[in-house]
Design brief:
It is built from one helix and five strands; from the N terminus they run E-E-E-E-E-H. With about 70 residues, the chain is mainly beta. It has one domain. The protein has a five-stranded antiparallel sheet. The longest helix has 4 residues. It holds the Pfam family DUF2283. This is DUF2283 domain-containing protein.
């Protein structure tokens, strides 16, 4: 999984799986999900990240990888 933040447009993209992109499914005005032709989720984009994720602060956010 890879997470990228674009400060110019205040968007987060979370790449969840490898694969060939086929289409984007709109979940809400702020959340888009990229899928392959079999509807497997490849990634997710969150627009207006600071507004939609109040706890998100790109300057201070730390990520912890948990293995279950």
């Amino acid at each position: 999984m890879k997470i990228k933040y674009d400060s110019k447009i205040d968007a987060i993209y979370i790449k969840m799986a490898p694969g060939s992109y086929d289409h984007t499914r709109k979940v809400s005005d702020s959340i888009m999900v990229d899928e392959d032709r079999k509807n497997k989720v490849l990634g997710m984009e969150i627009l207006d990240a600071r507004e939609n994720m109040p706890a998100f602060n790109p300057e201070k956010t730390k990520f912890e990888i948990l293995t279950l």
